[in-house]
Amino acid sequence: MAKAGFDLRKGLSIDIRPNETMVQLPHAQILGVEQQQVDVLAFENGLWNRISGQDVQSELSALPELAWKKAAESGLPAEAQEVLQQQLEQRIRTAQPLRLIFNDEKKSE
Known about the structure:
This protein is of the alpha+beta class. About 35% of the residues lie in helices and about 20% in strands.
């Protein structure tokens, strides 16, 4: 399971002006990837290609990095930004428009 969100330690500012409310924050990023379960369906050694415990461990240890990369490529950070925009518009009722500005740092990790 991958989780995307905002690292507010990188900066958050809210500027309420007469003509608009501006919210500046960093781009959404992948905050974590959790492994739910790994099932080894078959563990068979071939005559020429033996599978060692080290081979299995090596492949399993590569899974978190692969999951992190796939989550970033999936558009999850962009989806988090859209959801934040929608939630703020629903919850913050002001006469002036609400404008979200995402800082130009790296979009996803």
